[in-house]
Amino acid sequence: MNKLKKFGLGLIVSLFLSFTANAGSIKIGTEGAYPPWNSKDASGNLIGFEVELANALCEIMKHNCTIVEQDWDGMIPALTSKKFDAIMAGMSITDERKKTINFSQGYADEVASLAVMKGSSLENLDTPEGINLSIGGSEVTKALKTLTGALAGKTVCVQTATIHQNFLDSGDVGKVKVRTYKTQDEVNLDLTSGRCDAALAAAVSFTDYAEKSGKAVVLTGPTFSGGAFGNGVGVGIRKEDSKLLNDFNAAIDKARDDGTISKLAIKWFGFDASM
Fold first, then answer.
1. What is d(CA 148, CA 161) in angstroms, rounded to the nearest whole number?
2. What are the strands, taking DSSP E only, across 73-129?
3. CA–CA separation, 233 vs 125, rounded Å?
4. Mean pLDDT over all residues of the chain?
5. Which of helix, strand or coil describes residue 230?
6. Quick one: pLDDT at residue 17?
7. Residue 80 near residue 87 (C-beta atoms within 8 A)
8. Which of 95, 162, 265, 266 is least surrounded by CB atoms within 10 angstroms?
9. Which has the closest alpha carbon to 199: 232, 229, 161, 168?
10. DSSP letter string, 119-159
């Protein structure tokens, strides 16, 4: 084989290997500001349940993955505009979001809760431990009525463009004064400084903040699931990326079966939130 043919063959092999590597490379968007789901350490490195789970799923799928930061309120537009290929950011699977993107099967449960400062008049509300809005029934109706009375005239703080804001805006608990913030950290800070009578977010976000900050933040009222709160947390994928969706679903199955999701949930949440 002459040198020209060898060079040509080498070039073809090189291009093929490069294409193969790139075909298995994906970017995953996360917020980096929603602990313990995803956040940053003191050095600015992304950490959290979903960061470690994303890496584990990518290893199973044999994809080379890069995790990138994205502000929450621009998360879905960034996905659809192909800034990255998937979302793992504590994003609940809701019918409204499914109009725009697809979701993998759920990998973790996320129940929401109101939080107040210890000693608040809103502490120890007379409600069930948890309510599922999809199921409904007299217990749910009674709980929502109790919350409507308790929150009347109160300011409830929430991160913008979330299921939690959507719930408050729905009127299910009356006309509360909703104050929105760009990040959950800002919600927590204003709750502890007294600018909010209560706040609404994932229950684990408040318990994580209380433990790490030492602030007297306590949960109150029922935990919320179903309805506007969706059906668990999953990977967000563009509508047209059916192969990647199948890859993630298969990887989640394997990570569930081998205990990876449970192990990471216990590490970051303190309990098994796997689905």
1. 22
2. 86-87, 102-103, 112-117
3. 27
4. 93
5. coil
6. 41
7. no
8. 95
9. 168
10. T-TTTT-SS-SEEETTT--HHHHHHHHHHHHHHTT-EEEEE
Rounded average pLDDT over 121-150: 96
Burial class (CB in 10 A: 0-12, 13-18, 19+), 131: buried
Q: How far are the Cα atoms of 24, 73, 109 from residue 103, in angstroms, in the given order?
A: 20, 18, 14
Report how far apart, in Å, the C-alpha atoms of 41 and of each of 31, 35, 88, 193 are: 13, 10, 18, 24
Residues in the chain: 275
Do the Cβ atoms of 265 and 273 come closer than 8 Å?
yes
Distance separating alpha carbons of residues 219 and 227, to the nearest angstrom: 21
Gyration radius from the chain CA atoms: 22
Q: What type of residue sits at position 77?
A: P
pLDDT digits (tens, 9 = 90+) for 86-120: 999 999 999 999 999 999 999 999 999 999 999 99
Residue 150 φ then ψ, to 5°: -70, -35
Instruction: Output the CA torsion sign for 56, 256, 129, 230.
Output: positive
- What is the DSSP secondary structure assignment for residue 113, as one 8-state letter? E
pLDDT in tens, 41-82: 999 999 999 999 999 999 999 999 999 999 999 999 999 999
Rounded Cα gap, residues 104 and 245, in angstroms? 6
Q: pLDDT digit string (tens) for 234-259?
A: 999 999 999 999 999 999 999 999 99
pLDDT at 200 over 70: yes
